[in-house]
Amino acid sequence: MNIFIIAAWLAIPLSIWLIVYFSARIITHYKIRRDLGDMPSAEEIQKLYQQNNDIIRYRGHLPIVDRSDLK
Fold this sequence. Notes:
Blueprint: H1 2-36, H2 42-56
């Protein structure tokens, strides 16, 4: 009988902790979506990576030229 009493007393703080934990997760998720919006799709991320790689490899972009040595 004592095990049931101990389990009941442990279940109360555990359930309170679970309520607080999941409430915090829901609130955090809501605030992130409110402030930052939805995550971009995989296609949008791929397009951004491709644009970044094009810039790094000078495809369609001219490198920055130091004009001080042209004088």
